[in-house]
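>> Question from a student workshop board

For tomorrow's exercise we were told to take the sequence and the ligand below, predict the bound structure, and bring the output to class. My setup keeps failing. Could a helper post the expected result so I can at least see what it should look like? The ligand is pyridoxal-5'-phosphate.
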Amino acid sequence: MKLFIPGPTEVRPEILAELAHPAIGHRTPECARLWQTARQGLGQLMHTQNEILMLTAPASAMMEAAIRNLVRKSSLHVVNGAFSKRWFDIACANGKDAHAVEIPWGQGIPPEQLRTALEEGIAKGHPYDVVTVVHNETSTGTLTPLAPLSAVLADYPQTLFCVDTVSSMAGTEVRVDDWGIDFCLFGLQKCLALPAGMAIAAISPRGLQRAAKVENRGWFLDVLRLAKGNEKEQSPTTPSTAHLYALVAQLKHIATEGLENRWRRHQEMAVKTRSWALGHGWELFPAEGYASPTVSCIARSQGPDFTPALDALKKKGILVSNGYGDLKNKTFRIGHMGEHTLEDLLDLLQQFDEALKTEVVA
Ligand SMILES: Cc1ncc(COP(=O)(O)O)c(C=O)c1O
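>> Workshop helper replied:
Here is what the output should look like for this input. Compare the format with yours to find the bug.
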């Protein structure tokens, strides 16, 4: 199957070979070297000096880690899609006093609405310990600029800025330190183009200080335990060493491509996909100015029914995603992320056009 879904994405054969490394002991100098090299590379990727945490787990584990470690009592969750809703659900499931600020799906997050919600929390006597935001809502193909939100949060130093960059990291600009992100998380299976299996986060010094004051952080997701492991370049639990080899190799590959070139490649694919979609009478689901550079979410509007074409493509071994949840059959999503090139994308769009014609004739 050729994957044009918004993750997991295509993995290069060289990386598949890295995954075939024989297992090594996780308390060996070789493993410590891999751990250290991966953390250094991740710091560069994220533009941060913050502590880098790594877990053998899906990205959702780090969403839960943010809640368990940083929330003493109340949390605020900006919800504008399925994954931002998940973060709210995780906080509720952990017994936190969780509050959601609902934004229509496909809209970006207005900074002033964030300020209003923060003020309300203070006025009602439950100032928020954290605010959670999903940078790139994979469910709707919507990217929210973070710098304006960061500027608001500068006025609320007790509220830590937690950001999910699962489908944006390595595909578009993310500057953890410049944007004051206290907890920035992602997985490997999107724009990094590795198989799923590790969750990554960068936590700020004030995030670590907060964690020290939070009770019941649990064991597996305790950021202080993870940070302590880093002192010896070790994971507290047995990590997937196969993923460590692959991660180190892929970070090197990304540095060779050049991060800005990688961002540009994603943007070029997005621009092409959008004009192709509009040319068919479809619409972009996200509000104007918020369309994601890594995943395009396309709505039916006046265009032809795309669902038979999705099936026809699948028969040809090409996977494009239907809409997420309630958006199924109303939207579809093309993931132009990871290692795909403009050429790959043009090929996909041509095959899509053929699939659409076949269905009209049939
Ligand atoms: C924005 C976003 N956040 C979180 C997740 C959850 O990732 P995982 O399945 O690795 O837990 C996803 C998965 O698609 C996602 O797109």
